[in-house]
């Protein structure tokens, strides 16, 4: 393997000049720069990134720890992170926590040991001492999608509260009254926020939410299937199942089809998070869609700002309701149904004062 000395000899310059060219230093003549670049190409020279990082304390590398790489939402998020980082001159190392706090901490520890410049994390829970220490000890860090309450770290996320309210309003306008939810883990901010938003919207529309209509999931398909089976076994099953993430929605869909039931004739289904094949199911599934690519790009920009010594603020983008066919809608898929539109949200029913 060629060394920097080999490049200097081939270009007829000093090792210091080669170093300046590799670091894009302006004090190099065009002729010397051209000869060094030609020698690098001919010899196939690759700089020793580890050695360079020890000198400069920079690796131009970011770490990303995501909750579940199998989840299409997080796969899309990771792709947008990698693309934006590359545009800004950084590489990304990805760790998959698989919704396990121990794996999350393993990846965080490994990435910090590799001297990454900054860390993006979608926390699997809110109590990791390692994460808290990293955040308070000066490691440039940004939370994406999920966050840890009380930790002074920029958060880039989608706010789904209005969209959840819009979904309940939409279902109410369609005539549905018995609505159930498959909630995500309460230890995650997204899990708790979505179920609380659903509960608040149900209360606003005067709809009961009995404990039997709250299924506890873990953002995995199997938990969605089990929760839906329990709903279907009730003496009075719900008219609608709202799964608080896409994998749990797929599990719910499996459970419904296994019973030979039809959507939306026998039971309706809605989901938080859109995935490409939801438009290809029959019927296409009504969803709350997050601006995933925009979140990934914004998270990288915020982290690079922190790495490069600039102030970085939290970013909150809106999620939105996408109306399709799985709840008994009419009209064109993707457009507001005849019963509901975001521009004219129906008011909650007035309650008597008797």
State the strand order across the main sheet: 2-1-3-4-5-11
Beta strand count? 12
Overall pLDDT level: 88
Which spans of ≥5 residues are poorly predicted at pLDDT below 50?
335-340
- The number of distinct helices, counting runs of at least 4 residues, comes to 12
Overview of the structural elements:
The protein is built from twelve helices and twelve strands. The model is unreliable at 335-340 (pLDDT under 50). 45% of the residues are buried. The strands form two sheets. A six-stranded parallel sheet has the order 2-1-3-4-5-11, sandwiched between helices. Helix 5 crosses helix 12 (292-307) and helix 10 (221-232) crosses helix 11. The chain is elongated, with a radius of gyration of 26 Å. With 354 residues, it is of the alpha/beta class.
């Amino acid at each position: 393997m060629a060394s920097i000395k080999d490049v200097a000899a081939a270009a007829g310059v000093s090792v210091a000049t080669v170093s300046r060219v590799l670091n894009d230093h302006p004090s190099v003549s065009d002729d010397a720069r051209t000869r060094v670049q030609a020698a690098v190409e001919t010899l196939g020279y690759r700089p020793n990134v580890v050695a360079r990082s020890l000198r400069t304390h920079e690796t131009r590398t970011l770490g990303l720890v995501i909750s579940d790489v199998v989840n299409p939402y997080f796969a899309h998020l990771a792709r947008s992170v990698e693309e934006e980082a590359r545009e800004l001159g950084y590489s990304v190392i990805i760790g998959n926590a698989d919704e396990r706090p121990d794996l999350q901490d393993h990846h965080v520890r490994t990435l910090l040991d590799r001297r990454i410049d900054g860390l993006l994390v979608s926390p699997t829970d809110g109590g990791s001492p390692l994460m808290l220490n990293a955040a308070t000890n000066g490691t440039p860090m940004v939370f994406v999608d999920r966050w840890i309450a009380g930790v002074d770290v920029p958060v880039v996320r989608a706010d789904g509260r209005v969209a959840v309210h819009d979904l309940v309003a939409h279902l109410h306008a369609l005539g549905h009254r018995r609505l159930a939810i498959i909630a995500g883990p309460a230890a995650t901010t997204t899990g708790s926020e979505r179920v609380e938003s659903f509960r608040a919207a149900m209360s606003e529309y005067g709809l009961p939410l009995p404990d039997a209509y709250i299924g506890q999931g873990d953002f995995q398909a199997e938990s969605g299937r089990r929760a839906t089976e329990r709903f279907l076994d009730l003496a009075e099953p719900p008219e609608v199942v709202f799964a608080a993430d896409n994998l749990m929605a797929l599990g719910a869909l499996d459970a419904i089809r296994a019973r030979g039931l039809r959507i939306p004739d026998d039971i309706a289904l809605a989901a938080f998070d859109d995935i490409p094949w939801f438009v290809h199911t029959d019927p296409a599934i009504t969803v709350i869609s997050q601006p995933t690519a925009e979140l990934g790009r914004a998270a990288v920009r915020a982290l690079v700002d922190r790495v490069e010594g600039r102030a970085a603020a939290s970013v909150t983008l809106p999620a939105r309701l996408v109306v399709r066919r799985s709840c008994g809608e009419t009209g064109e898929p993707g457009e507001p149904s005849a019963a509901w539109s975001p521009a004219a949200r129906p008011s909650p029913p007035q309650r008597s004062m008797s």
